[in-house]
Write a structure and sequence with these properties.
This protein is an alpha/beta fold and 318 residues long. The protein is built from ten helices and eight strands. Strands 1, 2, 3, 4, 5, 6, 7 and 8 form an eight-stranded mixed β-sheet that branches. Helix 9 packs antiparallel against helix 10.
Length: 318
Amino acid sequence: MPTVFQPDFRVPHETPLRTPASHASAPITTEDTQDYFTEVATDYSAWSPSYNMHFGFWRAGLNPLRREGMLVEMNRAVGRVLQLGDAQPGTAHRRCVIDMGCGAGATARTLVGDDPSLYAITVTNVAVQNRIAAKLDAAAGVADRMAHLEADYTRTGLPAAQADGAWAVESACYADGTAKADFIREAARLLKPGARLAVVDGFLLRPQPGRLASWLHRLWADSWAVPTLAVREDFVAALREHGFDDIEVKSLRWRVAPSALHIPVLATRFTLAELWKARGKLSPWRRKHIVASYCALALGMFWRDFDYCMVTAKRRAD
């Protein structure tokens, strides 16, 4: 693709899988997260053939029974809040955006497909996701404007202040701590002054949830290899500390509910089919992946303790 950020791309490589620790309170490590996403990579195609690894965004006019349309609409909702504007007609103006924790690059693929002046770099530390993304890019006809970097999104190695926008859709939760400060610090470093960050994720509403909500959060987090969800107030405070302003938090609880309600039928059907194919034996991470799917729906019922939000912020000029 045309040179935009000129990152030092590493050749994806296979990594051996490790069995996750069985103790529920054992800390989740980066290696656990890599192993989880490597082992369940193709399982996500049951949720979305285009590998939209997130909940959908329902709006009037969308059929709540058609999950893929809502998933793509979430990608476009992210694009809208980045406020990239339109490229000047007749110019070679390029805008470059970064997907921090991209999965298989579905959000970037949607936005690049919608805007021919847009170029995207996606960041994941899971090699197999980049291989899936490359195949999907080619099928979508956007491979020349997509680049997939295998790296830690808190230390990307990309040059500073070059991105016109950045986002994390259900990936910021994989950073350490309740403030996700390392993730925010890197996003601030990458963005141009005035550029915007969008984060779509689940958030804890208080540091100490109720007993049942706390147990459910821990079961969900361990099953999807998440260290912890961010605490909303801690996350907003970290944004301010690291050079962001114009911060806005919007609850998407009702927007994602129609897609979340697809979970029981889909997860049950998937579980039965996979158990049949595997003769009743699934690997530890695949079992955990199924457990987390049900937990995600249950966690959303604890309104005092949990919300699913879109957080947007603008990088201040230094």
